[in-house]
TrEMBL record:
Name this polypeptide is given: Cilia- and flagella-associated protein 91
Domain CFAP91: from-to ranges: 4-156
GO cellular component: axoneme
Protein family per UniProt: Belongs to the CFAP91 family.
Keyword Cytoplasm recorded: yes
Short name of any one Pfam family annotated for the protein: CFAP91
Length: 261
């Protein structure tokens, strides 16, 4: 019993009515409708395979038009024979398509296997290269250690060869003090010398500098002329009033001088 009034007319809210894309006349089947499923990227633009499909559709339509009517037993037998022949032809064509698809899949599988084999060979080559580099580093380190040990043994042999008879030599003090690498200047720890034990041997320990009583005694012994200290008070950079305050203009002048500098 109630109604509502809208702000818009019915004509403004009306949508576009449905209209089909095409209209087929009764009793006719246009050939173009057989290609309605083809779209851009999926059959269009048409290639060799699409042209073969179109030819097959035309042949099938011609075959359907050539089928005898089912008005007599002979025509029915002839129609069944033609349909069996067409079915065998369709199966042969389907087998051919399956063979083509299998060949394409086989080529794709071959490429994938080849790519996987190449990636695996590349990975194996990288691993072998890493192993080779590690072995080379270990080899160089071993050679370096052998050379170091060889130089050490040569130095020991040279040192033993100097006194191969095992004679006792008298100490040459002049030669030891002339050679700064001798035991006099740089004694070795394996000979019983440990420099860390006497690390404070050369430290300066002065009674007059390290103790308060020594400082007092040093002050008493010093002449009185060195104690008076004359310090000149620096002149103020600003203008000071009689009360001891700095004028504001003086502070401003100092700031301006600093900025100028």
């Amino acid at each position: 019993t109630l109604g509502t009034q809208t702000d818009y007319r019915d004509g403004e809210a009306q949508t576009d009515p449905y209209s089909p894309e095409y209209i087929v006349r009764s009793g006719s089947v246009p050939e173009i409708l057989t290609l309605a499923t083809l779209t851009w990227g999926r059959g269009l633009p048409a290639g060799q395979a699409e042209m073969e499909i179109i030819d097959r559709i035309r042949e099938k339509r011609a075959w359907e038009a050539a089928l005898p009517p089912m008005d007599s037993p002979s025509n029915i037998a002839k129609r069944l024979k033609m349909m069996e022949a067409m079915e065998r032809k369709e199966w042969a064509y389907r087998e051919e398509e399956i063979d083509k698809l299998q060949k394409v899949q086989m080529e794709v599988f071959k490429k994938l296997l080849q790519r996987r084999e190449e990636d695996r060979n590349e990975l194996n080559a990288m691993r072998l290269n890493d192993h080779w580099e590690n072995h080379q580093k270990a080899k160089e380190e071993k050679m370096r250690k052998i050379q170091h040990d060889c130089a050490l043994m040569l130095r020991k042999l040279i040192a033993k060869r100097k006194n191969w008879m095992g004679k006792l030599e008298r100490r040459d003090i002049i030669r030891e003090y002339n050679d700064f690498a001798s035991q006099t200047y740089a004694p070795l720890s394996r000979n019983g010398f440990f420099p860390d034990n006497n690390s404070d041997y050369y430290a300066v320990k002065n009674y007059y500098l390290n103790t308060f009583a020594g400082l007092c005694e040093l002050e008493k012994s010093a002449p009185p002329s060195i104690f008076p200290i004359k310090i000149k008070a620096p002149k103020p950079k600003c203008i000071i009033t009689k009360t001891g305050y700095i004028k504001r203009s003086g502070r401003l002048e100092v700031v301006l001088e600093q900025v100028h500098q």
